[in-house]
């Protein structure tokens, strides 16, 4: 029989740090690790996401990214860049290497999954800022217009145990801005860039006209 969702806490790689609070709250813990059995104080240990289904049932919606997810994260990041019409020209390999750097540094990534464990999207969060900075938030193209974005955003807040996060939206990305505004995000600043041209001329040319 599956253990009810609200009685479990899923934790990632930072075991020694993350295990304390759930245990104090009397919650059962599930540790995602490549070395099951190495942490006997955890109630469950798994090495693959599909193993979580047997513990949680089919209500899993979020999980921390693992090293095996890097390729999928980089692929979704590439699609995010394309959808945003960002001028980032990084290759798939470069995006993979950058994602590895993110996850080994100040960032944490969460994957969003459907009831059968299929990936629907992901979020990348800078865990060192206050408020936390949501750098990337992506729903797979064939899973949009189903209400997942809103549901997973609130699930993300619950997982992070915060009520405030910061984001950046490209000025021309009106669809994204409308989505975030529908979640009650409010503008706080205008991020601007100077690219060295004035009316098609570089500034040193402009000075001589």
Biggest pleated sheet: 5 strands, mixed
Q: Helix amount, in percent?
A: 25-40%
| Average pLDDT score | 78
| CATH topology call of the largest domain | Aminopeptidase
The CATH architecture assignment of the largest domain turns out to be: 3-Layer(aba) Sandwich
Structural class: alpha/beta
Order of strands across the main sheet? 4-5-6-7-8
Order of helices and strands: EHHEEHEHHEEEHEHEEH
Strand content: 15-25%
Q: What is the count of structural domains?
A: 2
Q: Briefly, what CATH class of the largest domain?
A: Alpha Beta
Q: Between the first and last Cα atoms, what is the distance in angstroms?
A: 79 Å
| Morphology | globular
From the alpha carbons, calculate the radius of gyration and give it in angstroms.
Answer: 20 Å
Number of helices: 8
Number of beta-strand segments: 10
CATH superfamily of the largest domain: Gcn5-related N-acetyltransferase (GNAT)
Low-confidence stretches: 1-9, 13-26
How is the topology of this model organized?
Blueprint: E1 8-11, H1 15-18, H2 20-24, E2 28-32, E3 44-46, H3 50-56, E4 62-64, H4 70-84, H5 92-104, E5 107-113, E6 119-126, E7 132-139, H6 148-160, E8 165-166, H7 174-182, E9 197-198, E10 201-202, H8 203-206
Parallel strand pairs: 1-2, 2-3, 7-8
Antiparallel strand pairs: 4-5, 5-6, 6-7, 9-10
Helix pairs in contact: 4-5
Describe the model:
This protein has 209 residues and is α/β, with parallel strands linked by helices. It folds into two domains: 1-57, no CATH class; 61-209, Aminopeptidase (3-Layer(aba) Sandwich), CATH 3.40.630.30. Helices cover 33% and strands 21% of the residues. It contains eight helices and ten strands. A five-stranded mixed sheet has the order 4-5-6-7-8. The longest helix is centred in the middle third of the chain and has 15 residues, at 70-84. The chain is globular, with a radius of gyration of 20 Å.
């Amino acid at each position: 029989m599956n253990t009810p969702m609200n009685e479990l806490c899923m934790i990632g790689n930072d075991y020694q740090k993350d295990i304390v609070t759930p245990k104090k709250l009397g919650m059962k813990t599930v540790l995602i690790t490549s070395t099951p059995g190495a942490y006997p104080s955890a109630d469950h240990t798994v090495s693959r996401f599909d193993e979580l289904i047997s513990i949680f049932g089919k209500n899993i919606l979020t999980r921390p990214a693992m090293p095996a997810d890097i390729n999928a994260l980089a692929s979704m990041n590439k699609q995010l860049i394309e959808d945003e019409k960002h001028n980032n020209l990084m290759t798939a390999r470069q995006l993979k290497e950058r994602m590895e750097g993110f996850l080994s540094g100040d960032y944490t990534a969460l994957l969003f999954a459907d009831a059968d464990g299929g990936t629907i999207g992901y979020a990348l969060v800078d865990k060192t800022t206050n408020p936390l900075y949501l750098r990337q938030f992506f729903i797979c193209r064939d899973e949009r217009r189903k209400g997942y974005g809103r549901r997973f955003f609130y699930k993300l807040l619950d997982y992070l145990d915060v009520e405030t996060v910061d984001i950046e939206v490209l000025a021309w990305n009106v669809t994204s801005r409308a989505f975030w505004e529908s979640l009650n995000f409010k503008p706080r600043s205008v991020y601007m860039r100077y690219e060295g041209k004035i009316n098609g001329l570089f500034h040193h040319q402009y000075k001589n006209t």
